[in-house]
Amino acid sequence: MKISLHWAIAALLLAGSGISLSQEPSEASTGPAIAPQYDTTHVYVSPSNVGAFTMSFLGTFGGTSTKQVVATVTPTSSSTTIQLLQTPVGTVSLFGFTTPIPAHFGDERSGYLVTDMNSAIAAARQAGADIVVAPFRDPIGLDAIIQWPGGVNMQLYWHFTPPSYQPFRHVPENRIYVSGDRADRFVSSFIAFSNGRVVSDVAEAPGIEIGRPDATYRRIRIESNFGKMQVLVTDGHLPHPFGRENTGYEVDDLEATLAKAQSLGVSVLVPAFVSEGRKSVIVQFPGGYIAEIHSTAH
C-alpha cells in the first residue's frame, strides 16, 4: 500500500477519533502556516522499539496514538510502520522503517502543514530555502522536504481539506542549532517564510543551557503560526547530548513528569538545571529519541 504519512493519519483520525475537517485561516492573514498544533516532530526508531517508545512517550506526556499502519511515505519504494502520537504538549510522527530509508528522509526534523503547497514552495525558495525533495502527491495532498541556510531540514505537507486538531496546552519548541556563520541568514529566511517574529535575541545567554557553564552563547527565540522556535548559535563544541535534541516540551510540573518518564524506561542524560526562569532536563526515550523537557522555575 503506497500512501503518505499524513494521508494515513488523517484517515485514521477521521475514522477512529471523530475529528472533523474544517476550513482554516487564509494564507493572506497567516502566511503559509495553519497553527502550531499542525507541527509534528518526526521520530525514526527501529520497528522493535516502536511499542516501547509509544508507551513511554504517551505515558510521560499523556495523549493518544492513532492505530499503527504499514505504508510507503516516500516518493520511492520503502515501507514503514507509521502512527501519530498526539499529546497536550506536542505531537510526534513516528516511523519504524522495515526497509532502508531513502535519502533525505530521516534528516527532516519536523512536518509543517501549509495552506497551499505551490505558494509555500515559492515562498520558501524566495526566502532562501532549497527544495531537497520536490513535492510528491499522495491521495489527499502533497509533501516536500526543504532545507534552510545552516542545513536545517523540514517537511511541508498539504491536504485538499485541512485536518482539524486541538490546540496544545503548551506549544513545543523547535530547537535548532546553527553556526554563527549562518545564524542571521537562517533567522531572516525563516521569518520571511513564516511571517514570524523574533521574541528575543540574547547575545550572551548562559552556557549551562548548552552544557558549557563557563561559556556563553547566542540564543534567539522566534514565534510564528508554525509555533515556537529556539535558535542556539554555537561554535559546535557541544558535549553530548546537546545538539541532539530537536524539540523542547513544556510541562506544568517537571518533577512529576520526570518521575513518570523514568518509571517507563526514559533515561536522564542531563539532570535538571535552572537558567533564566526555566528548569530543564534532557532525556532519552526507548529507541534513542532525545528531547528537552522544561517548566517554569519556581
Give an account of the 3D structure.
The structure is a single chain. The protein is α+β, with helices and mostly antiparallel strands and 298 residues long. The protein has six helices and 17 strands. The strands form two sheets. Strands 1, 2, 3, 4, 5, 6, 7, 8 and 9 form a nine-stranded mixed β-sheet that branches. An eight-stranded mixed β-sheet has the order 11-12-13-10-14-17-16-15, with helices on one face. Helix 3 (50-61) packs antiparallel against helix 6 and helix 4 (117-127) packs antiparallel against helix 5. The relative contact order is 0.16.
Approximately what portion of the residues adopt beta-strand conformation?
Answer: 35-45%
Number of helices: 6
Helical content (DSSP H or I, runs of 4+): 10-25%
Instruction: Just name the CATH architecture of the largest domain.
Output: Roll
CATH C-level class of the largest domain? Alpha Beta
CATH topology of the largest domain: 2,3-Dihydroxybiphenyl 1,2-Dioxygenase, domain 1
Main sheet?
Answer: 9 strands, mixed
Assembly type of the shown chains? single chain
Poorly predicted runs of 5 or more residues? 1-28
CA-CA gap between termini = 51 Å
By DSSP, the count of extended strands is: 17
State the domain count.
2
Radius of gyration: 18 Å
What letter string, H or E per element, gives the SSE order?
HHEHEEEEEHEEEEHEEEEHEEE
What general outline do the C-alpha atoms trace? globular
- In round numbers, the mean pLDDT is 90
> What is the structural class?
alpha+beta
Fourth-level CATH superfamily of the largest domain: 2,3-Dihydroxybiphenyl 1,2-Dioxygenase, domain 1
